[in-house]
Design a protein that fits this description.
With 237 residues, the protein is an alpha+beta fold. The chain has 2 domains: 104 residues, Nuclear Transport Factor 2, Chain: A (Roll), CATH 3.10.450; 88 residues, Nuclear Transport Factor 2, Chain: A (Roll), CATH 3.10.450. Helices cover 27% and strands 26% of the residues. The protein contains 8 helices and 8 strands; from the N terminus they run αααβββαβαααβββαβ. β2 and β3 form a beta hairpin. The longest helix has 14 residues.
Length: 237
């Protein structure tokens, strides 16, 4: 799809968000406290009507990002917002609140798997008229990385399970991400961990398939909260 020209807008603090689960009660009267069904992440299309309520507009965008629907995202947000996002946001985002001022509505989300937080800025007039490109800024705040090797590995498994690619990249090297592949789902349980020669090996078992996964974490890097401390991933079974 050919990208149309947008008005220039600054993207704040990195990249953005995604939701595909429950919407938490909002902090202001502007925000809906309705639950957004998790199945919504897998539905919707470019042909669906554009919402005319700023919070619903932002939710629609987050659902589209969650399922990797770049055409729908392109319809709802400006180019700089899209450029700040990975292809898919995963399924673990929920709305935490919304606030309004100066003709804008700021809709906030949190990722239940990673703890990352994001706020989308929606131009109220554009959203109210059902016009494209009402989302014109995004603020993304990464959660602090864990400081113990086992918790660090757990953080990667949660991010991988939810398809939170941005968070995965903080925990693991590119080689590990390639080995893990697509979103791993929610069925992995830690069953063991042991240390050896500056590394900790953390083992997980999939409760559905029985498959095992071993992650190698560099102890010093994890204890200092440094990125990409998971340097190896091996499957068996």
């Amino acid at each position: 799809m050919t990208r149309k020209t947008h008005r220039t807008t600054a993207v704040l603090s990195g990249a953005v968000l995604a939701l595909a689960g429950l919407a938490a009660p909002a902090a202001t009267a502007q925000a809906s406290a309705d639950v957004i069904p998790s199945s919504s992440a897998a539905t919707g299309s470019q042909d669906d009507p554009i919402p005319t309520y700023a919070v619903a507009y932002a939710d629609d965008f987050v659902r589209a990002w969650g399922r990797g629907d770049r055409d729908r995202m392109d319809l709802l947000a400006t180019s700089p917002v899209l450029a700040a996002l990975p292809d898919s946001g995963g399924s673990a985002w929920y709305r935490t609140g919304a606030d309004a001022g100066w003709g804008k509505v700021f809709v906030s989300y949190r990722n239940s798997a990673t703890g990352d937080e994001m706020t989308l800025m929606v131009i109220n007039e554009l959203a109210g008229q059902g016009r494209p490109d009402a989302i014109q800024d995004v603020i993304y705040t990464d959660a602090a990385l864990p400081r113990t090797p086992v918790a660090y590995a757990d953080g990667l498994v949660r991010a991988w399970g939810a398809g939170a690619v941005r968070a995965e990249k903080r925990f693991a090297t590119e080689e590990v991400m390639d080995a893990l592949g697509a979103a791993g789902g929610p069925d992995w349980v830690r069953v063991a961990s042991e240390g050896a020669a500056g590394s900790v090996y953390v083992t997980y078992r999939n409760g559905v398939t029985g498959q095992r996964l071993v992650l190698r974490v560099i102890s010093e890097a994890a204890s200092q909260g440094r990125p990409q401390a998971v340097v190896e991933a091996r499957f068996s079974g």
